[in-house]
Amino acid sequence: MSAALGVGLGGVVSASTRRRRSVVNAIACTALGASVVIALIPLALVLGYTISKGSKALTGSFLTHSMRGVGPLDGTGGAYHAIIGTLEQVLIASLIAIPLGLLVAVYIVEYGRGPLRSAVRFLIDVMTGIPSIVAGLFIFAFWVLGLHRGFSGLAAGLALAVLMLPVVVRSAEEMLKLVPDNLREASYALGIPRWRTVVSVVLPTASAGITTGVMLAVARVTGETAPLLLTAFGYDAIRTSPAKGPQSGLPLFVFQQAGSAFDVAVRRAWAGALTLIAIVLVLTVVARVVAGRSQLKAN
Fold first, then answer.
1. In this predicted model, what pLDDT tens digit does every residue of 15-62 receive, in sequence order?
2. Cα separation, 278 vs 146, whole angstroms
3. Residue 116 falls within a domain, yes or no?
4. Is 64 exposed, middle or buried (0-12, 13-18, 19+ CB in 10 A)?
5. What residue spans of the chain are helical by DSSP H?
6. What per-residue confidence (pLDDT) applies to 101?
7. Which of 253, 203, 216 lies closest to 84, judged by CA?
8. What is the pLDDT of residues 77-100, one digit of tens each?
9. Is there a contact between 52 and 219 (Cβ–Cβ < 8 Å)?
10. Do 156 and 223 touch, CB atoms closer than 8 A?
11. CATH label of the domain that carries residue 138
């Protein structure tokens, strides 16, 4: 009889536990859903407000003309020179930071041992917290003044690379750590050297996550204004060579136009902000498509 009573009590407790877990699960799911909605509301408001303001001035003329010779009350002029500057500066930063960042991440995960590895990781952690103005000041002091190179889009690209590098390293490092060791051991068992294993097995497996981290780094530096003020300085006309003289960029264009007292300039600032968002979106989509195709070929 006691055994039957114990079984009965166990059944009651089990049912009660299941109900409690169901309630807790429902509450947790509701809290998670509410958190996602709360986090998305500011993003939706910013995007919606920027689109509503920027779309009014975002025309074909805005995308194909510069501010050369445009007066303060003139409704013409555009951001073509700033778009060229932003694309070139971000490209320079990417060409420097992405390969170097991937090499550093591979060293930390695959090859690094002892104090040197710890020192490299510590340095990357410190660089992650560097304010953007400090990176701009460093390039300003070293490149613009120290080497007498002057203001240029190249100097801006170097400053953006300083900001981009630690983001690439940390994101790539975390993605490489997620690659199962079984894949590495299987490759080593076939007699494949370590460098070939990294190139042919580890990097393709982590390519999707690495691409996401790289695009986060690109998105961060694309909108930076402070380093550009100290390195590119700004220029109203079209300058396709980033190494010859001051050059504009979309963040600089938005900053300068938004600081104007005239409504026509403020409208151009909103259009420039919308253009900047569109560029980041296009780059992200293209990178994801390319990474997806590369992963399919690897599989």
1. 888 889 999 999 999 999 999 999 999 999 999 999 999 998 899 999
2. 36
3. yes
4. exposed
5. 2-54, 60-64, 80-106, 114-128, 132-139, 153-177, 181-189, 194-197, 203-205, 207-222, 226-231, 250-258, 263-298
6. 95
7. 253
8. 899 999 999 999 999 999 999 999
9. no
10. no
11. 1.10.3720.10
Q: Which residues make beta-bridge pairs with 247?
A: 233
Contact 78, 65 (CB under 8 A): yes
Task: Classify residue 203 by burial, with Cβ atoms within 10 Å: 0-12, 13-18, 19+.
Answer: buried
- Residue-number span of the structural domain to which 121 is assigned: 81-298
For residue 247, the SS3 value is strand
In DSSP notation, 50-110 reads: HHHHHTTT--HHHHH---TT--TT-S---SHHHHHHHHHHHHHHHHHHHHHHHHHHHIIII
Please name every residue paired with 233 in a beta bridge, in sequence order, or none if there are none: 247
d(CA 5, CA 50): 68
Q: In whole angstroms, how far apart are CA 282 and each of 189, 243, 277, 278? A: 42, 26, 9, 6
User: Running DSSP on this structure, what letter comes out for residue 195?
Assistant: H
Position 46 in a domain? no
Tokens 């240029």, located at residue: 152
Using DSSP, state whether 233 is helix, strand or coil. Answer: strand
Residue 9 has pLDDT above 80, yes or no: no
Name the residue with higher pLDDT: 121 or 12: 121
For residue 281, give both structure tokens: 């979106």
Query: For residue 76, which amino acid is it?
Result: T
In a domain, 13, yes or no: no
Report residue 115 as tokens: 């104090």
Cα–Cα separations (whole angstroms), residue 215 to 28, 51, 134, 161: 31, 22, 22, 13
